[in-house]
Amino acid sequence: MKAFRYVAKDTALEYVELPDPTPEPGMVVVDVEVAGLCHSDLHVIDGIMTPPWEPPFTLGHEIAGTVSAIGDGVEDFTLGDRVAVAIIGYPEVQSRITPGIGIDGGYAERVAVHASTLVRIPYAVSTAHAAVAADSVATAYHAVRTAAGVRPGETIAVIGLGGLGLNGVRTGAIAGATVYGVDTNPHTFDAARAAGARECFTEVTALADLEPDAVIDFVGLGSTTSDAIDVVRRLGRVVVVGLGAKNTTFSHGTLVRKSVELRGSYGASKDEYRQVLGLIAEGRIKPVVEEIAFADLNTGLHRLRHGNVLGRLITRPGG
Ligand code: NAD
Ligand code: ZN
Question: In the prediction, which pLDDT does 52 show?
């Protein structure tokens, strides 16, 4: 099978021929129909995120497709089932068994996955939407709803209106909040308004007069988190999802004097993933996706690095 492999830091993924995976006990092989491109892959390539494995390694953690082989002891799935892989980061973190993060991932025609991470795709949800929902929707949903605890009538702000952030805006709007968006790229604003944002800005500091109850930072560059702490209201919440910085500095005095609650948010629960699939099936969340050819994966990652993407890029490794 064909796969794109991470081989070294600061290096394009290598397009190689690999043997097909076979399922170990408790695992199944999925023919990857759709894989989503996440900004975290760039952090791995850049060395901001340190992966738990030695290269070469297959990235790609937003995966949906069809079950094509079943290992011993797997009873819940049959050949031909349409499935997606949950990225379980809550309440426990299951990175070690998550494809593209702890084991070889979905930038390949086939991937071996742990059956415990699989979710059946509802009839009314496309395979593309199920794939991107695993991370770019479910992670955003968890961050806004569970980690930030957004309630009806609140004013919130979402920083970074990309793959995750647009779905963060939508989650906030569904929760009954008034949502403001921030992105350095104003081309994201129309999509953010369509997702429910009242107004969008190019600077976090523009939020200061709005005194948001919660700010969810889907960039995590350090400066964005620091600005979020500055603009959030007294006793407000700042949730960091973006992994753009290795270390961050912010005004200690501001955090303390305003009694700001600062927390991180990683992935989602399997149940939350099922909930977002339900919301997509009902048409209440409409992930924005653009398809690129599998052979153009590195070009897609290059576009993502330069902020030249609206919503999520997806590709079809199986053609
Ligand atoms: P993306 O590239 O699709 O979107 C990022 C957006 O942020 C872009 O629209 C870009 O224009 C905007 N942006 C960049 N710098 C900015 C700044 N200084 N101020 C405001 N906006 C800015 O990325 P994505 O795939 O949505 O991922 C976002 C971040 O979340 C990445 O750091 C990724 O690694 C991280 N992530 C975290 C988790 C988690 O579980 N915590 C899961 C997935 C991704
Ligand atoms: Zn991701």
Answer: 83
For ligand 2, the distance from its centroid to the CA atom of residue 259, given in whole angstroms, is 30
Domain extent, residue 188, equals 149-264
Rounded Cα gap, residues 120 and 145, in angstroms: 23
Give the number of C-alpha atoms closer than 13 A to the C-alpha of residue 308, restricted to the C-beta side: 7
Domain boundary among 226, 241, 264: 264
Ligand 1 midpoint to CA 242 (Å): 5
For atom 9 of ligand 1, the residue with the nearest CA is 162
Strands 178-182 and 197-201 turn out to be parallel
> Are residues 64 and 171 part of one domain?
no
Mean pLDDT, the chain, whole residue set: 97
Name every protein residue with a CB atom under 6 angstroms from any ligand 1 atom: 38-40, 43, 89, 135, 139, 159-165, 182-185, 188, 218-221, 224, 241-244, 265-267, 304, 307, 309
Cα(185) to centroid(ligand 1), Å: 12
Q: Are residues 191 and 175 in the same domain?
A: yes
Q: Which atom of ligand 1 is nearest to the CA of 188?
A: 9
- Whether omega for the bond prior to residue 91 falls within 30 degrees of 0, making it cis, is yes
- The low-confidence residues of the chain, meaning pLDDT below 70, are none
The tens digit of pLDDT for each residue in 31-62 reads 999 999 999 999 999 998 888 888 999 999 99
Give the residue whose CA is nearest to atom 35 of ligand 1: 242
CATH of the domain at 276: 3.90.180.10
pLDDT in tens, 160-202: 999 999 999 999 999 999 999 999 999 999 999 999 999 999 9
Residue 153 sits in the same domain as residue 71: no
Separation of 54 CA from ligand 1 center, angstroms? 25
Q: How far apart are alpha carbons 279 and 141 in whole angstroms?
A: 11
**What span, in angstroms and rounded, lies between the C-alpha atoms of 228 and 152?**
21
**What's the pLDDT tens digit per position in 215-232?**
999 999 999 999 999 999
Structural domains of the chain, count: 2
The Cα–Cα gap between 298 and 14 comes to 9
